[in-house]
Amino acid sequence: MKKNHLPWNYTMEWDVPSESLYSILNCALRDADRQNLRPWYRYLKLFLTALYKLPSIPHQTVWRGVREDLSDEYCVGDERAWWALSSCTTSLKVLESSIYCGKSDTRTLFSIESFPGKIQLKTNLC
């Protein structure tokens, strides 16, 4: 497998999104019981090794948006570890596209400060 194939395979959409690889793995990554990750250790080692070989990005703010009100789970200004593997963008205009969050209705926008080897999460509610 080429070094850039593993991350791409991880993000593939399946017909039933809840059965997608990324959906199942992210549930395990978000679970407080870290023992639930044991079946994933070998896959995560391979995945992280592939990611390590990709070019690093400098410290920057990236954005993640969802079409849900997550204000009960996240307070403005909260800082958290972002355990799940999530797609993000450096452009707010991308999130405003109707394909993603759009410009209206209920949304939650995350401002994520990325650092090599460390991610700090900040919440902004739309």
Please describe what this structure looks like.
The protein is α+β, with helices and mostly antiparallel strands and 126 residues long. The protein folds into 2 domains: 49 residues, no CATH class; 66 residues. Helix content is 26%, strand content 18%. The chain is built from 4 helices and 3 strands; from the N terminus they run αααβαββ. The chain has a 3-stranded antiparallel sheet with strand order 1-2-3, with no helix packed on it. A hairpin with a 2-residue loop joins β2 and β3. The longest helix is centred in the middle third of the chain and has 13 residues. It starts with a helix and ends with a strand. The N terminus and C terminus are likely disordered. It comes from Didymodactylos carnosus. This is Mono(ADP-ribosyl)transferase.
SSE arrangement:
Layout: H1 5-10, H2 21-30, H3 41-53, E1 60-66, H4 92-95, E2 108-115, E3 118-125
Spatial ordering of strands, largest sheet: 1-2-3
Order of helices and strands: HHHEHEE
Alpha carbon gap, first and last residue = 40 Å
Rg for CA atoms:
15 Å
**pLDDT average, as an integer?**
77
Number of structural units classed as domains: 2
Level of helix content?
A: 25-40%
Please give the count of helices. Answer: 4
Shape: globular
Largest sheet: 3 strands, antiparallel
- The unreliable regions are 1-8, 117-126
Using brief descriptors, characterize the structure shown.
126 residues; alpha+beta; 2 domains; 3-stranded antiparallel β-sheet; 4 helices; globular
Summarize the structure.
The chain is α+β, with helices and mostly antiparallel strands. It is 26% helix and 18% strand. A hairpin with a 2-residue loop joins strand 2 and strand 3.
